[in-house]
Amino acid sequence: MTGWLGGAYDWVKAFHVIAVIFWVAGLFMLPRFLVYQMASAPGSPEDRLWNERNARITRIILNPGLILVWVLGLMAATSYGFAGSGWLHIKIVVVFALSGYHGWLVGTAKKFAAGQRPYAEKTLRLLNEVPALATIVIVILAVVKPFTE
Ligand code: HEM
After folding, report:
1. Which regions span the lipid bilayer (predicted)?
2. What is the pLDDT of residue 1?
């Protein structure tokens, strides 16, 4: 079961999982950084330091990770085949939602950089749990492959 990728399928899958680890690491780190940043006054030296860290993690880990996960995931998916792969359909929907969370997160970091604090710390702490929950669901779907015909 390798499809158009042939012998390269396992390599694409390996790099897909590597990209997933980078992306999810960023999705765990940035919301935690924002919780820490809540303690610093907008415009203070500490606040500026957090803004730099947020921008760097977005540029170096989050955005490239998101792109690589999608490109390599879709390469693997088109080779694997969508027919009868219920798990893959559900997985793509959940990853789509997680990509929306990524967009929200990066947007929120930009608002922090503009001196805004759009959410209460408790809300941010709660939203911190989203990547962990999504990872549990996605990995179970990818490994156990429920809803396979
Ligand atoms: C839209 C984006 C994605 C697509 C289309 C996609 C698709 C795929 C496909 C087709 C496979 C190969 C399945 C196999 O050969 O058994 C795979 C493997 C895997 N994916 Fe994704 N994936 C995406 C995003 C993600 C994300 C975000 C995660 C984790 C948070 C993830 C975790 C995994 C894992 C752990 C495997 C290895 C499963 C195994 O070998 O048993 N994927 N993915």
Report:
1. 14-39, 60-82, 88-106, 126-144
2. 56
Q: Is the CB of 138 under 6 A from ligand 1?
A: yes
Distance from Cα 98 to the centre of ligand 1, integer Å:
14
Q: pLDDT-based confidence at 2, cuts 50/70/90?
A: confident
> Ligand 1 pocket, 80 CB below 6 A?
yes
- At 106-137, the pLDDT tens digits run 999 999 999 999 999 999 999 999 999 999 99
- Average pLDDT for 39-51: 98
Tokens standing for residue 40: 């610093």
Q: Is the pLDDT of residue 91 over 90?
A: yes
Cβ of 93 less than 6 Å from ligand 1? no
CA distances from 115 to 2, 47, 49, 84, 123 (A): 50, 9, 13, 49, 18
